[in-house]
Amino acid sequence: MTFRASVLTLYPDMFPGPLGTSLAGRALDTGKWSLDTTNIRDFAIDKHRTVDDTPAGGGAGMVLRCDVLAAAIDSVADGRPILAMSPRGAPLTQGRVRDFVAGEGAIILCGRFEGFDERIFEARAVEPVSIGDYILSGGELGAMVLLDACVRLLPGVMGAPDSGVDESFETGLLEHPHYTRPQEWEGRTIPEVLRSGDHAKIAAWRKARAIEDTRLRRPDLYERHGGVSQASPSGARQRDEGRSK
Ligand code: SAH
Questions:
Q1: Full domain range(s) for residue 192
Q2: Is residue 169 part of a domain?
Q3: Using a 6 Å cutoff on CB, does residue 11 contact ligand 1?
Q4: Residues 218 and 143 occupy one common structural domain
Q5: Is the pTM of this model over 0.85?
Q6: Basic and acidic residues: which segments have biased composition (predicted)?
Q7: CB under 8 Å to 110, separation ≥6 — which residues?
C-alpha cells in the first residue's frame, strides 16, 4: 500500500523540493509513497483569486479564508487525516509520525500570513500540527519535515527493517553517540569500550550514555523516562571521552 501525501499550498512549486532527493526521492521514484500538490489559490471564488482577508477584530497581517480552504480540502479529501501546519498545534513527535505511517497517508494544509480562519479546524476535522516552538514564514517547510519523518519509516525505504528502532525518541531517550574511524583524530580517541568487541559491555555503555546525554540535554524527556532511578554511573562521559596525551 502506498502512503499518499496531498499538500495544499499557495506555493506548489516548492514541492517535492528536498523530498525529491536522497532517501525520500528514491522512495518517491519507486512508488513507496506518492505526492500531489493542490494550489489553494485555484479555489478562490472571486475574479482576483483572493485567498485571504484582514483579521476580524483588527491587527496586523492577513488570514486564510475558511471557504477557500474548505473547497481546496474537499477537492482531495478521501478519509485520510487532514493536518494543518500550525505553531498552535501539538508539537510533532516520533509517536505521532508512527501513527501517520500506519495509515494511508495525509492531507497537509500549509499556512501563510497569520494562518487559517479558526473555523476550518472543526468544520473539516483538521488537526493542527506544529514542528516546534518557533515561527516559520509558511507551512511548506513544516510539511516537508513531517513527510520526511514519515517516509523514512515506510516499509522498504530504509536499508535494514530494524534500522529505525533505536534512534533518538524511539526508546524515549536520545540515542547514544556514534564514532567511526580514524581511531585517533586531532588527539581525540574513540572510547575504548567500543573497540573491545564485548557486545554486552558496548550495549551497557551505549545505554548509560543515552541516559546521561538525555539527562543533560533533554531534562524533559529524562523525567518522562523515569528520571534519577535509571541514571547512569556518574562521570561516564568524562571517563570515556578522555583525550589521549
Ligand atoms: N500567526 C501565527 C503564525 C503564522 S506563521 C501564530 O502566531 O500562531 C505562517 C504559517 O507558517 C502558519 O500558518 C503555519 O502554516 C506555518 N508555521 C509557522 N510556524 C510553524 C510551526 N512551528 N510549525 C508548523 N507550521 C508553522
A1: 184-240
A2: no
A3: no
A4: no
A5: yes
A6: 216-226
A7: 7, 8, 9, 10, 11, 85, 138, 139, 140, 142, 143
